[in-house]
Design a protein that fits this description.
Shape: globular
Distance between the termini: 9 Å
Largest sheet: 5 strands, mixed
GO cellular component, one term: cytoplasm
Family: Belongs to the arginine deiminase family.
Active site: 432 (amidino-cysteine intermediate)
Radius of gyration: 23 Å
Number of strands: 19
Pathway: Amino-acid degradation; L-arginine degradation via ADI pathway; carbamoyl phosphate from L-arginine: step 1/2
Bound molecules: citrulline
Structural class: alpha/beta
Strand content: 15-25%
CATH topology of the largest domain: L-arginine/glycine Amidinotransferase, Chain A
InterPro entries: Arg_deiminase
CATH class of the largest domain: Alpha Beta
Strand order of the largest sheet: 8-9-10-13-14
Length: 443
Amino acid sequence: MTEITAPIHVNSEIGKLKTVLLKRPGREVENLTPEIMERLLFDDIPYLKVIQKEHDEFAKALEDNGVEVLYLEKLAAEAIDAGNAKETFVEKVLSESNIESPSVYEGLKNYLLDMETQDMVIAIMEGIRKKDVHTKQEHLSDVAEDGGEPVEKKGSGSSYFTEDESDHLRDVSNDDDYPFYMDPMPNLYFTRDPAASMGNGLTINRMMFEARQRESLFMEAIMQYHPRFASSDVQIWRDRNHTSFMEGGDELVLNEKTLAIGISQRTSAQAIEELALELFSKGSTFEKILAIKIPNVRAMMHLDTVFTMVDYDKFTIHPGILRIGGSIDVYVIEKGDEPGKVKITHETDLEKSLKDVLGVEELTLIPCGGGDAIAAPREQWNDGSNTLAIAPGVVVTYDRNYMSNELLREHGIKVIEISSSELSRGRGGPRCMSMPLVREDLN
Ligand SMILES: NC(=O)NCCC[C@H](N)C(=O)O
């Protein structure tokens, strides 16, 4: 086996995992409240101490199996320092954080730039509460509360009072009760979605919901400035400056010539076609994309919530994506006859489409929860189909999905289970929580 020196090298879903990017859940998951959790794409509020313990167990399971684990928060801070890009980064994040008031903008900027880079990255991820940053408007509200003269507040935020700002009506908050100037990013521990490795490059994604759109700024900075990546020839197949959206949970690398991408709640058909054109024209190894249409519902937001590869010829599947009779729409996208054009063939037999591109005679689709009318949707809801393959036939899964795990074992798959009572509350499993950077090639 030749040693892989490229910082990103992913030619399959199942090749031995060498390096992976994770994000340990931090206070951003505690900054959820019942009022905002739905908008921030959570169904419940995780218990921080336990979710961190479970995540550490996940990281340890990977390390015990020879995987190098890198952390997003650390790489992002290293990148920003290496690129001397603190101010540029802060300005970019602020410009995407819906801050209308100039005094709030200035207050936040000074507040963040006064921090060490690592603390600043973590603060941005956790979300920034109004009570931590003092701006002129806060003093105006003090007047209203006390009926007296504005008094400069003492405490950590007082130096961020922007005394010179002119008064703007837009400084008057529409929602004084809302606790944040900058929303937390609780979904960051799903490192799979903001960017996706394919070949020796990646897509840095424009994500569907505002709750997640700023997440890909960290990966953009890492690729731009971090010495581990910036000095190498990492191909950005698609950047985040698009209007059509794509998320990594939909992007599967079947082999070095073929991708499977979900047309889903989070990834549009247009984005897939645009990516195909980029890949076909920029000298990638990819020649085909299977665009698989899945239901546009929250429970199945990405293709990897209903379909993952576990071995050369085996996949998990949630039966809920198939029509009665087992058909599903698969659009095979290939290079067209003219530049700037693709050729699209419509197929409806997923098993056959997969056999064709993988070059295998037999293929097994292992149904989530055994296909049982109750167990299948229950275990799918807790990511029973969302396995992370760390080698052919070896996967990491959530322990709570015992029926699906048992079935995987019956099919000869080695299953490494991790605790999942809190991790699962964010509606993502082991594949969602990991972004492979390097995998060994298959023979
Ligand atoms: N690939 C994945 O399916 N990721 C899980 C993302 C869960 C997150 N709460 C979201 O709704 O985006």
